[in-house]
C-alpha cells in the first residue's frame, strides 16, 4: 500500500504569489508521486462546507505525513476562524502526537513559520525554481524522512535519521535518485534555468499526456546541442515569433527544419516538439552558460509553451499517474 502524504496550503490573495505557491505545491506533489507516494492536495481550501470538512478530516486522519506550505497568508488564515486553514490547523493540533507534520517554508522566510511548528523538522526550499540544485540537500532530507519506516514523531533531527537508516551505499543511491527526479517542470509554460547535464541530459516539461522529454549536451559558446527524445522535433532559426504563438496554426511552417536525432541551437533559436500523444510544445533558448570549472554546473535557460494544454489543477495532479 502506498504511503499517503497530505499537503496543506493557502490560496494567496495576490495573483503572482498565488501562482508561485500553487506551482511549487503542484511540483512537489508530482515529485512525491515519482517516489511512489499517494498525494492528497488540499484542492477545496476556498470552498467551505461539508465536502471540505470531510476531505480535510479524512485526508489528515488517513495520511502518514502532513506537509504544510507555510506562507504569510497561511499564517494569517491559520489564526482566522472559519477558514479552511484554521479548520485544518485544529485537526492538526488534535493529531499532533500521532501524525508526523512537516512545515515547508520558502528559503529565508522563517518569519512565516507558525509557533506551533517550532521544534519540528522544517524544510526550507526555493519555491520559484523547485527543480534547482539549491534544493537538493533539503529535498534529500525530506525524502529520507518520508521513506523512513522507523520514524517517530519525536525524531526531529534529519541528520541522525539519515545516518541511522541508510548505509553509505544506500545513501549514495538515494541521493542520485533525489537529484535526477528533480529535473522537471510540470507547468504548461514558463521560463526555466536548469543544469542540463544532470539526469543524463534529460529535462521533462509538462505532465502526461502532455509531457515532453527534452535532451541536451554541451557544444560551447552561446549554443547547445538538443536531441530528439519525442515523436518528432523541428528546429527554428531565430525564433522571433515565439511570443505570439498560442496555437499550432500560428507556427511558421516555412521556418521548420526537422531533425531525427540532434541539432545545434544558439541563443534565440527555437525548437518544436511533438510527443507520442500528438501534443505540441515550442521552446526558445534564452541563454547558455558553460562552466569552465565544472561542466555539470553548466546551465541553459529555456522559455517554453505547451500549445492547447489541459489545465493543470490540483485534482488533475492527484489523479495523474507518474
TrEMBL record:
Location of the SEFIR domain: 2-134
Keyword Amino-acid biosynthesis: no
Domain of life: Bacteria
Cited Gene3D superfamilies: Toll/interleukin-1 receptor homology (TIR) domain
Statement: the UniProt record of this protein carries the keyword Flavoprotein: no
Keyword terms: Receptor
A Pfam cross-reference name: TIR_2
TIR domain segment(s): 1-129
InterPro entries in the cross-refs: SEFIR_dom (IPR013568), TIR_dom (IPR000157), Toll_tir_struct_dom_sf (IPR035897)
Protein name: Toll/interleukin-1 receptor domain-containing protein
Organism: Veillonella hominis
